[in-house]
Specification:
0% strand
């Protein structure tokens, strides 16, 4: 399982025209764990926002989406 996820994430990263990454799936299967592992191994820095813990951050993304329309 880990190998397939890592493979897909590396494919996504290597595509120069990649879109933002959206990961969906069942609860409690390790999505957040694998993304955090991937990011810490592949990037110098990153930002992690958990909308359940920081619901006020949703407003920031709503404002950005409105500006892009």
């Amino acid at each position: 399982m880990e190998r397939k996820i890592t493979e897909k994430l590396l494919e996504w990263k290597s595509d120069p025209d990649h879109c933002p990454l959206i990961v969906t799936g069942c609860r409690q299967i390790g999505k957040t764990y694998y993304i955090k592992e991937f990011v810490s191994n592949e990037y110098k820095s990153h930002i992690y926002i958990n909308f359940e813990i920081q619901p006020n951050k949703k407003e920031l993304f709503k404002e950005i989406a409105m500006l892009m329309n």
